[in-house]
């Protein structure tokens, strides 16, 4: 019926037309809604707003209309609820994918307790990161060229610093079991929910923070089995590239470097001397550690080969010259026979 109506907007108020166009309503629907208002005025029934007729705003309760039951139901229909990004558990409650059940062994494997010395080192690193990030941001504003890692560190803002300091303190206090909710983090840092979400994402991108999602599983005779998402489990550490950038790791002395190299060569020789089955059990799984052991074994073999190779002669001189004669040895021998006076 509305398609047959005239689509002129000359009599429609300009403000109403602009408001409806902002919601994506086409001119034909606006003209049809205005024509319906004219019909309502001529019939003496309550006139509905154009936004209600076009479905932009819901119909208020208690409003008397002259529309049919079908039209009233269509106008009063609420907008669709936003679909959740998470999945739905078998119990019917939304649960994030890859979530760990509370009390599972995966939780204990993920927890990393923080000692007092580690706490001091982490807090010092956090303050150094914030100062370095602020200097890099100022350099970038002045037109300086930054490397990708330096530009990435500029994301470490004041809110990230406050968030990480509080999480580190909780890791120390709770022996690695830091499970705050978003509301708890908002109360700790006095930040908004959106800022808390932004800070956690930035810390995760920098490699400073890790977490696993968890859910609670309950079961009773009245409601049956139920699963519900709960707070995450957090842990933190300073990546190596950030530690080098902020000067956290001091250079190792040369004597300590040599001692570590000798110890690694001895460990490689020990692994090479045992049987194949025992060697397979003792070899580390990390590719970097395996490569270091292999290089240490090569250095040890090269040094042993150079030590076993005889020295070359210099202008016909024997490698090991005899610096004392046989007669001298006989005279200095304490067990030789002496002449009696």
UniProtKB/TrEMBL annotation:
Lineage top rank: taxon: Bacteria
Identification of the protein by name: Helix-turn-helix domain-containing protein
